[in-house]
Amino acid sequence: MKLVFQKATIEDLSSILELYKKVIETTFTTWDENYPSKELIISDIKNSELYLLKNSKGECVAVSFLGINDDSKENWVIQLKSPLGVARICVSPDYQGKGIGSYFMNRLIDEAKNRGADGMQFHVCTKNISAMKMYEKVGFKNYGLGKSNYGFDYYKYELAF
Fold first, then answer.
1. Which of 3, 11, 59, 92 is buried most, with the most CB atoms less than 10 Å from its CB?
2. pLDDT tens digits for 44-89?
3. Cα–Cα dist 105/136, whole Å
4. Which residues, listed in sequence order, are joined to residue 5 by a DSSP beta bridge?
5. Domain span holding position 83
6. Into how many domains does the chain fold?
7. Secondary structure of 14-48 in the HEC alphabet?
8. In the chain, which stretches have pLDDT less than 50?
């Protein structure tokens, strides 16, 4: 299967919104009709912080923010000087269970390195078992409960490069 990794553009907006909607309707997520918002996605695109995987037909099969997360109050275990994180990462339910998430995450890790990051740090909802398995498969370590501002428990996932 040929997949193309690229930065999202404003022309991708409707397919990104459709993908998030499909994921919210059919899989486990803490997201709802208000998050991620259209405005947030547009901001991510304008800031060149939203990445996609597209199939050979040009359809969006995965999407993720890659940038500086607002987790400054977190007590991270690995001390990094310039970490990046992922957020709002998802894979189309039609493509789950096929290694697409791991492939996408490895491409995001490569992009983080290319952007000068020395590692990655982010939160994962404690109930999102499939995401945790995928992150651990590509080398991230779970460092226990993190601080949550959203009413859900989160684990701290970290990887130094």
1. 92
2. 999 999 999 999 999 999 999 999 987 667 899 999 999 999 999 9
3. 11
4. 53
5. 4-160
6. 1
7. HHHHHHHHHHHHHCCCCCECCECCHHHHHHHHHCC
8. none
Please tell me the distance from the alpha carbon of residue 161 to that of residue 114, in angstroms, as a whole number.
Answer: 11
Q: pTM here?
A: 0.94
Place of tokens 């990445």: 51
Q: Do the Cβ atoms of 65 and 49 come closer than 8 Å?
A: yes
Instruction: Kindly report the three-state secondary structure assignment for every residue of the chain.
Output: CCCEEEECCHHHHHHHHHHHHHHHHHCCCCCECCECCHHHHHHHHHCCCEEEEECCCCCEEEEEEEECCCCCCCCCCCCCCCEEEEEEEEECHHHCCCCHHHHHHHHHHHHHHHCCCCEEEEEEECCCHHHHHHHHHCCCEEEEECCCCCCCCEEEEEEEC
